[in-house]
Every structure is written in structure tokens, then in C-alpha cells.
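Regression test case RT-17, inverse folding.

Input:
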């Protein structure tokens, strides 16, 4: 099957499906280097020449908010330096122990941590503040990002969890290459649609994180007890007993569609997210090679107009229960349409 691709900033060709690295270091115990490296290599090796794998890491992807994720990435490229040119590396920063901080001091300090942790093994292709900090004006955030970019610390500027209005304002200050927002059959709000449309108009790629609903849209979980002890999702709103039970109606209905297509439920969800636009890049996370390859193949799957109508009917019939994170009253630092 021909590999579908997306063009970033008019010049970089990446696979239709990207690879999120958060859970490799964001859980306890962390994934071993051997397993993590095979997961990364597997995806890159599956791509044709000239197509890069969009790798998504973070300066705070660790239980202690430290640079463990960056250090894993550095070890990977130290061991496999020939893969540096085959990857498009996106790094998010600006979240610490006290939440979102996109002040100039914080972003510059985070950038220093990123570069020091990567140890020159891989250039940062895309740098993104992890959220829009409501305490810092957008113009000030962009001024810092533009300054860091002009100093040659990374190649492209991205934004995360931004509204359509904010994306347009930021792009008017300096071109935005990628906007990262959550998109899945569980997360497809009106503002999501506006961001997708605005990005299309402006020539900005969309990195659609959590297309598998933080794992609930893989069909592998039936109750909160299926989550590992200490998993952060245990306190997420949609994984609470009553909400999860209600949301499984969506999972079961979508599973029936996937089974008729002889594909995995996760692949159906990735394909559904991908069809929202030729500039949309589903961003699932994976810590093992088999899952990476399965996710990648999801980007090459077509969904018929009849299947799209059926999925739309499912989502209209069964409303998602619960918030994306902890609950509406506790989402200020994690879910911001800034």
C-alpha cells in the first residue's frame, strides 16, 4: 500500500501518522531502551525514502516533570545516528511542577534544557509551548519563540491546544508550522473543527494527539481496573466507572465497523482522524514496535462515505461522558483553548 504523507511548512514530507513518545518515559516503570528503540526504529524503517517520521517528545514527559524523555531520545540517536535525518523531531516544553509557564524566562530555560539533554544528537525541528499560558500575552509568547528561532535553536514554531483565533493571531506574527490539538471520536468539538479549518486555510499542519482516546478507543479496556496501578488516567474523568461504562457504547459500536473492515478499532479511529483533512496528522503514542506499525498502517486506510455516515450516527447517538482530563473545574492547566 502506498504510504500517505503530509507536507509541513511547504517543504518537509512526513508520514500521515506520527509517533508520540510520551508514555515511554511518562509512566512507572519507564519502557526499556531496547523496547523503546525498536518501537521508534520500526516506524521509521517502514517508511519509503524521503518520508520522515514525525516524532513527538516533551521536556516534561516524566513523573517528576524532568527531561527523561529528551534523554531517551538522545540515547536513541546516539545509538542510531543515521536515523536523525529520517525523523522530524517535535518537542513540547513550558510545563513544570507548578503548571504551565510560557514566560520568556521559562521558555528560554526550557530550550536550554532541551538542547543540553539532546547533546547535539538530533536537531529540534519543531518547538512548541505545551499550552497557551493565560498569564502571558500571546504576543509576548510569540516574541520569545521568534527570538529563540532567530538564534538558530530550532527550525519551526508550533502551538498546542490553541483556539482558531489564537492560531490566526500567532501566524500573523510569525508562520506557525504545526498546531497540536486533541482529536478523536471522543474529542471533536466545534472549536476543534474551527482550528482544523483555520489551519487548512493558513497552510498549517495539524498534529492530532490522543486519536485513540488515551487508549480507551483501542477496545482493550472494559473497566478502570484494567489500568495499571498509578496510571494517571485513573483520575481522568472519562475513565471513572460510570463515564467509562457509558463510553464503552461508543467503543462497541465503532468496533463493529472496524470488524466489518477487518481492521483494528485503533486503526479505524486513526483513519477517521486522518480523513478530516490532508493536513491532519494523527498522533498516537506507542511503546512497542507492533503497535507502532499498526498505527502507521491506520493512516493508509480509507473510509467510505457510507462508513463515515455510520460513524457520525454513532457519535450523535452516543454522547461522550466526562471531560478530557480531570473534570471541568480542574482543567485550567491542561485543556486551554487559549
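Golden output:
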Amino acid at each position: 500500500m502506498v504510504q500517505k504523507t503530509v507536507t509541513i511548512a511547504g517543504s518537509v514530507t512526513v508520514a500521515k501518522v506520527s509517533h508520540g513518545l510520551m508514555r515511554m518515559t511518562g509512566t512507572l516503570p519507564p519502557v526499556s531502551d531496547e523496547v523503546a528503540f525498536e518501537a521508534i526504529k520500526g516506524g521509521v524503517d517502514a517508511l519509503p525514502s524521503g518520508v520522515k517520521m514525525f516524532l513527538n517528545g516533551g521536556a516534561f514527559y516524566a513523573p517528576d516533570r524532568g527531561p527523561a524523555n529528551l534523554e531517551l531520545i538522545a540515547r536513541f540517536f546516539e545509538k542510531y545516528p543515521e536515523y536523525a535525518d529520517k525523523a522530524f523531531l517535535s518537542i513540547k516544553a513550558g510545563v513544570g511542577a507548578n503548571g504551565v509557564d510560557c514566560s520568556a524566562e521559562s521558555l528560554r530555560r526550557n530550550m536550554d534544557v532541551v538542547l543540553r539533554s539532546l547533546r547535539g544528537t538530533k536537531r529540534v525541528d519543531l518547538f512548541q509551548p505545551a499550552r497557551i499560558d493565560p498569564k502571558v500575552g500571546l504576543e509576548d509568547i510569540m516574541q520569545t519563540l521568534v527570538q529563540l528561532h532567530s538564534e538558530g535553536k530550532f527550525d519551526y514554531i508550533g502551538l498546542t491546544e490553541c483556539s482558531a483565533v489564537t492560531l490566526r493571531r500567532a501566524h500573523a506574527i510569525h508562520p506557525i508550522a504545526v498546531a497540536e490539538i486533541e482529536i478523536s471520536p471522543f474529542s471533536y468539538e466545534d472549536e476543534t473543527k474551527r482550528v482544523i479549518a483555520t489551519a487548512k486555510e493558513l497552510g498549517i499542519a495539524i498534529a492530532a494527539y490522543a486519536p485513540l482516546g488515551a487508549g480507551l478507543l483501542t477496545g482493550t479496556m472494559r473497566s478502570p481496573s484494567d489500568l495499571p496501578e498509578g496510571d494517571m488516567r485513573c483520575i481522568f474523568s472519562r475513565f471513572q466507572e460510570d463515564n467509562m461504562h457509558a463510553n464503552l457504547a461508543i467503543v462497541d459500536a465503532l468496533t463493529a465497523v472496524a470488524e466489518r473492515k477487518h481492521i483494528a478499532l485503533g486503526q479505524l479511529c486513526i483513519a477517521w482522524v486522518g480523513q478530516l483533512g490532508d493536513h491532519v496528522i494523527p498522533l498516537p503514542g506507542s511503546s512497542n514496535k507492533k503497535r507502532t506499525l499498526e498505527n502507521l498502517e491506520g493512516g493508509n486506510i480509507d473510509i467510505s462515505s457510507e462508513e463515515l455516515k455510520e460513524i457520525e450516527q454513532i457519535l450523535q447517538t452516543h454522547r461522550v461522558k466526562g471531560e478530557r482530563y480531570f473534570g471541568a473545574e480542574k482543567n485550567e492547566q491542561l485543556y486551554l483553548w487559549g
